[in-house]
Write a structure and sequence with these properties.
It is a single chain. By secondary structure, this protein is of the alpha/beta class. The protein is built from twelve helices and eight strands. It has helices at 13-16, 19-22, 58-61, 66-71, 99-111, 122-129, 194-201, 205-208, 222-230, 241-248, 277-290, 292-300, and strands at 73-78, 114-119, 136-138, 151-166, 186-190, 215-219, 236-240, 255-271. Helix 5 crosses helix 11 and helix 5 (99-111) packs antiparallel against helix 12 (292-300). The longest helix has 14 residues, at 277-290.
Amino acid sequence: MNTRTISGRLRGAAALALLPLLTLTACGSGDTGGTAAVGAQASPVPTDDPVAAVRKVDSAAALLPAEVREAGKLKVGSSIGFPPGAYYPNGTDKAPAGQDIDLADAVAKVLGVELERQDASFETILPALGSGKYDFGTGNFGVTAERLKTIDFVTYINDGQGFAVKQGNTELKGKVTDLTQLCGLTIGTGAGTTFEATLTAQKGVCAKAGKKPYDVKVYSENAATLTALQQGRIDVIMSTINGLRYQAAQPASQTAFLGEFHRLDVGFAFKKGSPLAKAFQAAVDELIKDGTYTRILKKWGTSASAIDASRINPPEHT
């Protein structure tokens, strides 16, 4: 998974109600802003609360640095803006909701700390970890070989890259398994994402195949990507599997999910060498063991992304 700049955020109450449907992300992106798409409407927010029963686990909390245990707080930079990962169902003056929110809150309860959550645009979080602005980051950050050079990851789901088109599209009718299927088309994706990196790195595949190259349009606001698709300014969206699948299930979005392209582990992000990683791994494993993890993923419809155990810095899927 989520994912975009905050300056373009929709602030009116009516516009905010559209955000759950309009915003995509992930492994790549996560801002709450954007231009409203025609006909969109908010979907119901799950009301069950699997995090409520979570309690502190002393063995996991003991893995935290002494100064963190004493302070009892951690700063998290959160990319918030797309369901089912993290979004504002009731406006930015209310609490965010989503899979990433529940998992981070549950981990904090296992470790016996409070979270100081700061909303941040997707592309700013990873660079800010090294400066200490945040203790960790969330935003459906996919584990890639390039990111592993500067970032530590503690995995909590397996998501990845996928494609979606407007319903009725006649150029792409089946699953995208090779980027040459996109030759001659215009692809919309999020700034600073694994999607943008993949499309840029493979931009020569069409020429090698003797075909017209694909064009890439990068958007800082997720809602703008969907609007561009609906208005015909792009032919296809590349974003997170879970986000695109969720969106396609909302009739008003008028999109069709074209399936998975490339799976990626997704994790909490830390500066390289962070002493927090082992504690977070232990906390995720505790949630898996006691069933809270399963209930959170079921709540948000992401059970297909479940992992059996958390890992620190696994290699990128090939």
